[in-house]
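If your schedule permits, I should be very grateful for your opinion on a structural question. Please examine both parts with care and let me know of anything in them that strikes you as inconsistent. The record follows directly beneath this note:
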Amino acid sequence: MSQWQQQPSDRLTLDRIRRWNLAGWILLGLLPTAVAVADRSPARKFWLLGLLALIALCHTVTLTRPRNRVLNRRAYLGVLALVLGASSYLLDGGAAFYVVSLPQFWLFTRVPREAVAFSGAAAAFTVFGGTLGQGWSPQFLTGNAVFTVIAYAAGVGLGLWMHRFIGQSNERQEQLTAELALTQEELAAAYQRQGAAEERERMAREIHDTLAQGFASIVVLAEAARSAVGADPERCAQQLASIEQTARENLTEARVLVGSVPASGVAPGSVATTLRRTLDRFVQDTGLTVTAELPDIDLDQRTRVALLRCTQESLANVRKHSGASTVGVVLTEVPGGVELEITDDGNGFVVEESRGFGLDGMRWRLAELDGELTVTSSLGDGTRILATLPTQSHEHG
């Protein structure tokens, strides 16, 4: 690949270089040449100015309409070589004009051999035109011709070096582009895997906080109902009703999880009403004493769901592990947030040694809303759960 075989993204840069070259060519090539013929004969002046106008027009057409079939780049460079030879004849030497025009033979060709051939032909025409009018002279080897030949050799050397340098740069760019594309694909795959892992983790938390807790309640209630089926039929019927209600709630939660209903599984309304309903069910199922302070606080849906899940998880832990007889629930509105405190007088545990999905799930759920969970407990002293959530940043509901 050469510097003339540009990618579409590089064409704008190459066109800009050609336009800058045109400006320099006009200022340092065409204008000085036009001034140089001012003291020549009218005939020479006429012919040279006409040639300069012709080559300027051809350059403009080639630059602005690169796909025209009449004057393509090769044809233009052929005309340029002839004009350089003719101007060299009319001025008795045109090395300076040739040097200023030399970059065009590399900018308007696609492969180095074309640039070498066209610039060589232009150098030959320039030397021939400069010596045609004055004939053979010993000054031939030290004057205009030698300077033209040196300029041609230097141009070929510099052009080939630039060709190699740009070719290596293009190869490196292609390599970096390929590596970047590969990295982007790997990053996209990593994001996809991370998203899948986060979704599995979210689903696991939701299942644990809803379906798993509900099934655990059904198991406990079924065991109690079986024990009371003969001794206390009324109590047994009450527990069977609780089993039915819990099963229906689990069915609703399952539909929420699979996306068949759009809601969050928590009925709209105040958080106090939702928590009281949960506590009433807990008292009905367990017979434990529950004290509650639940002011009517207006909270968004996500905050209500988070507080409800924390309450459900805490009550489930009380039922399964604590051996408590009394549970206290206090909801408090604080500046910029809300706090939910759940305490029990049960066995307690060592927080640092606690290993379970429930507490971690509560922490993750609160952290998603910029909240935090504080667990205080020790053996024989009961447990205190404190959930803190901000309210100002989540009013979007």
